[in-house]
Amino acid sequence: MKTQDKETLVWQIRLPADFSGIRLGRQNLDRVLRCQGWGERQISHWRRLFTELASRSVHHARPSQLQLRLYQLEQTWRLELEDDAPPFDPSKPQPIDLAVDEETSLTEPGWELPDPMLAEATYRRLADGNLCSLLLQQDELHGRILLIHHQPIQRTLLADYLAERFTVSTFASAREALPVFERQGADLVISDVGQDSFDGLALRHALAQQERRSLPPFLFLTGSEDPETRLLAAGLGADDYLLTPVCKAELLAVVSRVLFRQQNRKERCADHLDPLVTASLRPHLPASMTPFGLSMGTRGARLGGSDFILQQGRRLILGDVMGRAEQARSFAHAYAGYVRGLLCALPQALGPAQVLRRLAKIMLEDPLLSQTQVHVLALTLEETGVVRLAAAGFPMPWLIQAEAVTPLPATGQMTGLGGDFHAEEFVLLLRRGERLLIHSDGLRCESNDVLPSRWQQDLLEQLRHCAGLPVKETQESILQLFDTHHADPIQDDLTLVLLERLC
User: Are 145 and 166 spatial neighbours (Cβ–Cβ below 8 Å)?
Assistant: First the structure.
């Protein structure tokens, strides 16, 4: 390949060959690619490819360590995954062995896990290990940029530099750019300064006065090294400053850094806000409720819907308000709080099916909630060890016994609340040592209604492996496994409650 001699090692890391190492590698790969200005879709794509290859290697070849390296070529990037295992090609689909007994296993072609994305991987056997390489073009458009420069030649040149990786709109003056920004917004504004009474600095000041739209980061360009201009730009909150003429590499590096810094600010804000909301919508459950032991764990998404949980004596109600995208996230939080408030007002004497029927009637008559999709699971825990539950759209729990792990059968058509709604009650007597795994939709695979085979197999193995551990340790191990298998950031909230009959 012609670009081989121009490649640069950007980053490398040595990882333990286990699930914790895979998770560490994925987190670091995410961070490095974001620093390089990559788009979310491609970052997610590479994370999944790495996770798939590394998981197959760890599970089947059992190396002692992994090495991950990222190279930048002229127009391409290459990710290398090296291990020290015997000959093994992780890019090929691997069968799942279904154990029939200790001496027999059933392997069918239909149980293979083909991943068409792994066709991009190339495998090579090394002297003492295996090497898989992935090539990918950085063609993701990441961010909308408004570029303002009074000189046509400079404006065209800078736009050409940026257009390879970003969506760029160009303007000869800040006055031209202002109405476009008011209509469409922007992720970054790049402007020259000092050429007009309403220049880039004046535009920055004007946008700062607007309350109805958040202010994007600003990058100023100037041929002047005048300290007063620099101080004025800094005083208005400029995110960076470049002297012209500027080369392509420097411009792209600074733009990527500014956008990445802006993304970090949003994530820190979300990280601060979400625990506060989660604390109110998903408060801690008691560790025991005779004769049951309980443990709850959560994972919060920055996008999508919102989970909530309510404990009223021996009754638990779990809910999931559907939502999409970042804006829907805030509405889902509000809806979840509203629905939770309505449930708090219901009489505690109501059984699970009665709770859902009463809530369905309220939602149908409520002008706000009648347009909202909410999935709910209600259950009561009796002192005799009986669990009574009813579900509407919410996944049914898994029954964990010494001999098997099985999902409980659905009761009636689970289409959510509202309209012609009917709920049936499911009654189960747990024996000592038996458990229920209750979980929201977040436990499932993204954009799929069922757990993918490899994730489901690992989850079942983990549940069997943790059979003798306390429920708190088991719950934490499930979430650790979830973190290993699922993409960052996750697309839907996860609420998980593990319930065990203790005596």
Answer: yes
